[in-house]
Structures are given as structure tokens and as C-alpha cells.
UniProtKB/TrEMBL annotation:
<dbReference type="GO" id="GO:0005739">
    <property type="term" value="C:mitochondrion"/>
</dbReference>
<dbReference type="Pfam" id="PF07978">
    <property type="entry name" value="NIPSNAP"/>
</dbReference>
<feature type="signal peptide">
    <location>
        <begin position="1"/>
        <end position="19"/>
    </location>
</feature>
<feature type="domain" description="NIPSNAP">
    <location>
        <begin position="148"/>
        <end position="247"/>
    </location>
</feature>
<feature type="domain" description="NIPSNAP">
    <location>
        <begin position="39"/>
        <end position="137"/>
    </location>
</feature>
<keyword id="KW-0732">Signal</keyword>
<comment type="similarity">
    <text>Belongs to the NipSnap family.</text>
</comment>
<dbReference type="GO" id="GO:0000423">
    <property type="term" value="P:mitophagy"/>
</dbReference>
<dbReference type="InterPro" id="IPR051557">
    <property type="entry name" value="NipSnap_domain"/>
</dbReference>
<dbReference type="InterPro" id="IPR012577">
    <property type="entry name" value="NIPSNAP"/>
</dbReference>
<dbReference type="InterPro" id="IPR011008">
    <property type="entry name" value="Dimeric_a/b-barrel"/>
</dbReference>
<protein>
    <recommendedName>
        <fullName>NIPSNAP domain-containing protein</fullName>
    </recommendedName>
</protein>
Length: 249
């Protein structure tokens, strides 16, 4: 073996054991999910001429569904998606959700009085499984009424280890007096990966517009957003009105 080869071999053998832990750290994707509780986001698109009828039917029969599991909120989308409703359901585990779906399939009243009538009114359905991010808790709005905004961010691959702190800083910069009220921040488990959502409450659509204008002139918010958008691919916002039967109303 040449002198150079011997030196290289010795360097490999004598490499500190800490390098293994460093390699593992590089593969770590950020804060791990500590709770089993998850939230299912569901979006239904409705035939335009059936929108009013669908909302009326759901208002009258939603109790058949909430008898099986907890509804967090139900909204009609005003901007960012025409003839759509968005709703959030809470589950303690995947086995609970499976049991709920099985029970609904065997519930003749639910099927005859709601599903058989509602499904022909829909053009599509979409769902996504999400968890609250580790630094967020589900909140209630400060008062009844108002409007809600769901801001959805498709982040670049890499996970929270790459963009988690920047996203948190950008969201928390606006979760302050004089801005909107953050009700929850979520990350996707099933659906588009590296996707996060922020659910906001405002007194009105005009209040939301005022907040956006204020944020654009707030150096603190602008700096936090600039750091976050370097990790952002796309963003989608929906402004929503709560339905009469929505727990978040």
C-alpha cells in the first residue's frame, strides 16, 4: 500500500464517532408528531344550480353526521373557489376514523336522508389528512360571526427541518394585536406533501383587506415573509363564510 493510501485509510479509521450522529441529524425532518389526533380537511365542489339546495340539505341533516364524530368547522367558500364548501373533522386515531366510516356506511338514515340526495349535487370531493404543527393549538375566534381565511402553502421539498422555523416566524409575525386571529396551523400528512395551512379569522372581508395593507407596510412582517418565501413554491388563499351549523361560527 502506498504512503498516501495508508494515510487515507488511517483518516477513515480515526474519524470521530460524532460524524454518525451528524449524518443522522441531517436526515432528521424536524419536530416529530407527538399526538395521534389528526384533522381531515374535506372540500366539496357543487353543481352551481345546486349550491343553495346542498347547503339547505346539509343544514337540516348535519346532525346525522355529527352523531358519529366531531365537526370542527364547516364553511362556504366565497373567494378562491366557486360553489365549494370546506369542512374540518377531528379524529383521535386512524382506527377511530375507520370505525366512523364503517358505521356511516351502515346507517340507513344517513344514507337515505342525506347521502343519496347530496352526492348527485356534487361534482367532486377532495380530502387531506393534517396535523396541527407542534407550536400551534386549535383556537376559537374572539367573537361570533366574521370571515375565515384558509391560506395554503406548498413548500419546497425538505420538510420542517429546512423551512419550519421560517414558516413559523412568518405566520406568528401576523398573529399579533391589530392583525387577524390565527386559529390553527396545520401540516399535511396525506395529500400534497410539504404543504402547510394557516386558518385565520377576521371581523369582515374589509378587515382582512386592511390587515393585508398594514402587513405590507410593517417591516417586521415583511422581513419574516421574505425569509419564508424563499422556501415557497405556490400559495392558495380561500375566504370563507361559516355555515349556520358550524361549531366555528
Amino acid at each position: 500500500m502506498s504512503k498516501l493510501g495508508a494515510l487515507l485509510r488511517s483518516a477513515v479509521l480515526l474519524r470521530p464517532a460524532a460524524s454518525t450522529s451528524q449524518a443522522r441529524a441531517c436526515l432528521h425532518t424536524g419536530p416529530q408528531q407527538e399526538h395521534k389526533t389528526f384533522y381531515e380537511f374535506r372540500t366539496y365542489s357543487i353543481h352551481p344550480h345546486q349550491n343553495a339546495a346542498f347547503l339547505k340539505l346539509t343544514n337540516e341533516k348535519i346532525h346525522l353526521r355529527t352523531a358519529h364524530s366531531e365537526l370542527i368547522g364547516y364553511w362556504s367558500v366565497e373567494y378562491g373557489g366557486l360553489n365549494q364548501v370546506f369542512h374540518i373533522w377531528k379524529y383521535d386515531s386512524y382506527s377511530q376514523r375507520a370505525a366512523v366510516r364503517a358505521a356511516l356506511a351502515q346507517d340507513p338514515t344517513w344514507i337515505s336522508e342525506y347521502i343519496s340526495k347530496a352526492l348527485p349535487m356534487l361534482t367532486s370531493q377532495d380530502n387531506e389528512v393534517t396535523y396541527l404543527v407542534p407550536w400551534s393549538r386549535l383556537q376559537k375566534p374572539p367573537k361570533e360571526g366574521g370571515v375565515y381565511e384558509l391560506a395554503s402553502y406548498q413548500m419546497r421539498p425538505g420538510g420542517p427541518a429546512v423551512w419550519g422555523h421560517a414558516f413559523q416566524a412568518a405566520v406568528c409575525a401576523r398573529d399579533a394585536p391589530g392583525y387577524g386571529k390565527l386559529l390553527g396551523a396545520f401540516h399535511s400528512e396525506f395529500g400534497a406533501q410539504n404543504q402547510v395551512h394557516a386558518l385565520w379569522w377576521y371581523e369582515s372581508a374589509d378587515h382582512r383587506a386592511e390587515v393585508r395593507h398594514k402587513a405590507h407596510n410593517d417591516a417586521r412582517v415583511v422581513a419574516a415573509v421574505r425569509n419564508s418565501v424563499t422556501h415557497l413554491d405556490t400559495q392558495r388563499n380561500r375566504l370563507m363564510h361559516p355555515c349556520l351549523f358550524s361549531p366555528l361560527n
